[in-house]
Amino acid sequence: MSSSSSPASIKLRRLSIVDEKLVTIPDFIMKQTSLKTLSFSYSPLIRDLPEDLFKKLRSLRVLNLSETAICNLLTSLGDLVHLRRLDLDATRIREIPESIGNLRNLQFLLLPNCKYLHNLPNGVVGLINLRILDVRGAPLDGLPMGIGRLKQLSKLLGFVVSGSEGCKSRVGEDDTEQEQEHKGHQHRRFCTLEELKSLSQLRILTIVNLERVSDKAEAKVAALQAKPHLIDLELCCTVPSRSSDVQQPRANDYDKEDIKRIGEVFEELYPPPCLQQLEINGYFGREFPSWMMTPSSSSLRNIRRLDLRDFALCQQLPSLGMLPQLDCLWIKGASEVTSIGPEFLVLADGSAGARGRNGRQTDSCFSSYFPKLEKLGFEDMTNWEEWWWRLEEEDNQTTPLLLSLKELYIDNCPKLRSLPESLLCHATALKELRIRRAHSLREIQNLPSLTELILYSNSSLERASNFPRLKHLDVYDCEELKVVEGVNAVEHIQLDDREAVSLPEWLVGAGEDQPCFPSLHKLTLSNKICRRGLPDWPSIR
């Protein structure tokens, strides 16, 4: 570009501006009438758009205003008839103009985390080429009637159940100004779950506010089980708001009738057999739906990732050990579960693949539990005390269990007393173990395949031993830890010593004749790294 050239004299096709200090749209952009892509992402000070911006830039295919402070869109948005992608992620937008219905070529409408957006215009149902609609995190009262006309939708993230009784107040809402502004929209009619039935191309679906579903009949007409392409499903109930000192929902947060109804609703939301990922969040029934509790369930035979979060009333985990493709399982907020035993692997009532009353296997062709599970996590299990499973086959040989497990995470399970002994003989592929805030755990031992051990804030932990292949050890806030042994292969130890006056006894090994850590060559102390052979290497025997 010559020294006399100016930005306005150059014909741009794509322009992306990332400037945290930018307050207004530069004037030269108004002259870039050939622009196809315009992006102002991560420019949080931009609040307003020039009145004739959209009239000037009629050739736009992509418009990205994510994480700006934009509050309103111009009615002339409807002039962008070539627009394919509109991204307003995390903006302050309060209203989308009805003229959006003119954008018949729009394929991506991204509105996640728009905290001030309570309704979508009816014009949205005219976007016949829309592939992706994302409204996760926006406090919508519902979606416009007619969403079922968007036959090309493959991703619908944040389908809002409005409830048959009309719009309900938003959980935790205390902004009087927002309430007054929103009063005019409270009597709008919204679509119901029935409109999902016609969206046969859906591959990814998130449904929120399921506590508003009136009865099982309303859930049944969604016909989730008939969606031939659905691979990712998230079913969410709103978790009751509460004071910051009580994080998890409890039984007295719900009425008996609501508890019964939500169980019936979820019974009708069973997914198709092609499903690969499932997340259930905030479910408050007393038992999981039967399509989860039956090991041979065709609905979950291809499931690979399963997340169960904040289920307040279930006292028993579903039987998941016989899911043949499951490779990642995360369980969070199971506040009523006190014990995990054989029922986690198979049913105890003689169902197919389970054990009868004589304790014997009823399906001899099943040879392994959790055969492909590689990642397992338990989080916020505040009443979980016991973890055990001992299942003997007829020939007195133990059924293979967790043979593929590589990563195990335990976080904020303060009452858990011990890990199951069967981890030693079964989880032979386990490489990484992270344990945090397990305050009743006193020892961890005998994991021969482990290469990385992370221990954070375990107030009662006294011993960690017999990890012959361990390479990395990270210890933080485990004041009672006195013995670390059988870790001759460890090469790197990381400690938090900000409040310590000396190295821990288990590391220094005073009085020992043999080196405690013969392979150790790197020691990280807070922000300091020490290496063997250098002058600052501490006295470690």
UniProtKB/TrEMBL annotation:
Regions of compositional bias (Basic and acidic residues) in chain numbering: 167-183
Taxonomic superkingdom: Eukaryota
InterPro entries per UniProt: Leu-rich_rpt_typical-subtyp, LRR_dom_sf, LRR_R13L1-DRL21
Ranges of residues in domain R13L1/DRL21-like LRR repeat region: 193-332
Protein name in the entry: Disease resistance RPP13-like protein 1 isoform X1
Signal peptide: none
Keyword Hydrolase assigned: no
Region listing for Disordered, in residue ranges: 165-187
